[in-house]
Amino acid sequence: MPRDLVMGGRVVSTVASAVAAYEPSKLTPGQWQEVAALTRATVTAFRPDSPWAAVQHMTTVAHFCAWGRSVFLPLDTEALFHPDVVDRYVATGMGHLKERSRSTHRSRLVAVARTVTRRAPWPPLPESISRNRLSPPTPTRTSPDCWPRPSSRRPRTAAGPPSACSAPAWAPDSSAANTSSSPAAMSPPMPTASPRSAWAAAGPAASRS
Questions:
Q1: Contact of 95 with 74, CB cutoff 8 Å
Q2: pLDDT tens profile 41-59
Q3: pTM of the entire predicted model
Q4: Are the beta carbons of 26 and 94 closer than 8 angstroms?
């Protein structure tokens, strides 16, 4: 729970009371008098969400307005809270602050300027990405989504020598194979005797007759 905000010896519990009771400690009464009205109107239009935030933004805006008055800039909201003027203040009016403090004050000024100006050319805020638009994480190798799924296709067999169940391309057809496999077809043909051989086999008996 945040601690109570005490200003002027009393506890401040609202943004409006914090804005009304604020007085800068590092500005002279004359400097604060020149910029008090613009500072209070600007922070009230910004609508801080707590009294502590109101004091923080009052400090930033009061010193920014006092710097603008010192360099003879008009105390006009649209002219003073311009992007170029804010950048100039960060570069030349915060030399006594550390880098982290300069960044904090600049962030507050930019937030206030975007809210209270209508014509100052502030660039649009980057679009935030909602959770519904985030892509799902890439599954890892240990995720079941990455495991190989069984295929419904029959695996191909590697080419090899022809098996006994399949005849090679150069084998004769079945009818020729059945004919050549019979005993008559497989026995060699009998030699045919020539006339001279037949006469020699007849011998002298044939010559006597």
A1: no
A2: 999 999 999 999 999 999 9
A3: 0.61
A4: no
Q: Which residues contact 29 (CB under 8 A, 6 or more apart)?
A: none
Overall size of the chain counted in residues: 209
- Please name the residues in contact with 75: beta carbons below 8 A apart, sequence gap of 6 or more: 34, 35, 38, 65, 68, 69
Buried b (16+ CB within 10 A) or exposed e, 69-99: beeebeeebeebbbeebbeebbeebbeeeee
Contacts of 207 (CB under 8 A, 6+ apart): none
* pLDDT-above-70 percentage for the chain: 60
Token representation of residue 117: 């100006």
Residue 65 is encoded by which pair of tokens? 């307005």
Would you say the C-alpha torsion 6, 9, 13, 19 has a positive or negative sign?
Answer: negative
Cα dihedral 140, 141, 143, 146 sign? positive
Q: Look at the alpha carbons of 101, 96, 73, 27 in this order and tell me if their dihedral is positive or negative.
A: positive
pLDDT digits (tens, 9 = 90+) for 119-155: 999 988 877 655 555 555 565 555 555 555 665 666 5
Interatomic CA distance for residues 123 and 110, integer angstroms: 11
